[in-house]
Every structure is written in C-alpha cells, then in structure tokens.
Amino acid sequence: MSRSASPQLDNLGLPEELKIKLMEAATRNNRSAAEEVITRLEETFSREDIAEAKAARDALLVELGDVLQTGLAAADDLNEVQASLQKAQKILDAKRAASHPSKENPNAERDKVVNGIDGYGIPDLGE
C-alpha cells in the first residue's frame, strides 16, 4: 500500500500489513481509515468493559451465595433454639403444675416430672 492511500495511518507507526488490513476493513465498512480505527478501538474497550462487568457480577453472585448460606444456617440454628425453648417451657409448666397438685391425685404432676415429661425422660432437677 502506498503512503498516499493511507495518510491517516502513516503517523501511527503501524506495520504495513496492519495498515492494509485496516484500509481493507474501512473500505468494506464504508469508513475512513480513522473511523475504522476509532470504531475498532471502541469495540475493544466495550468488550473489556463488558468482561469487567461480568467478572464483578460473578464475584457478587459468589458473595450473595455465601450470605444466603449463612442465613440458612442461622435459620436452622434458630429452629433448634426454638425447639429447645419449647421443651424447656414444657418442663417449666410441669414443675409449676407439680407445685400446685390437684385435689384428686396430689402426686400426679410431680410423678410426671420425676419420671420424665412427654417421653423426653427428663429427670426431676430438684426444687
């Protein structure tokens, strides 16, 4: 390619083979050599921006997954705490009832506490 065919590219110090490719692409795309260079550079930077955005998105998805896992584990822990509190409440209710025996069988409630409540086998802890 002669210097007069691509004066816009001559000042860039590009290899002759690259100048030829750019001029052929510019002709195919009905652009000047400068417009072709600008368009290709913008596309390159746009792809880099997209790649960076995808990488940031992927990192956020990983972090979100970790947060969700932590939340699910905490929910499981809360369910266990709730179940333990319910068991403790039953024991407390039975102890209260044992301290106020019924007239028919004054030792019935106390026997429940001593022998275990609702199959938990929790012994009387003393009063």
UniProtKB/TrEMBL annotation:
> From which source organism is this entry?
Azotobacter bryophylli
- Gene3D superfamilies registered for this protein in UniProt: Met repressor-like
Q: Which InterPro entries match?
A: Arc_DNA-bd_dom, Arc_rbn_hlx_hlx, Ribbon_hlx_hlx
Q: Give all residue intervals belonging to the Arc-like DNA binding domain.
A: 11-48
Recorded hits in SUPFAM superfamilies, A to Z, give: Ribbon-helix-helix
Q: Which superkingdom?
A: Bacteria
User: Which residue ranges have biased composition labelled Basic and acidic residues?
Assistant: 92-113
Q: Does the keyword DNA-binding apply?
A: yes
GO MF terms held by the record: DNA binding
Q: Which UniProt keywords apply?
A: DNA-binding
Q: Which residues lie within the region annotated Disordered?
A: 92-127
Pfam families, per database record: Arc
State the name under which the record lists this protein. Answer: Arc family DNA-binding protein
Q: Does the keyword Ubl conjugation apply?
A: no
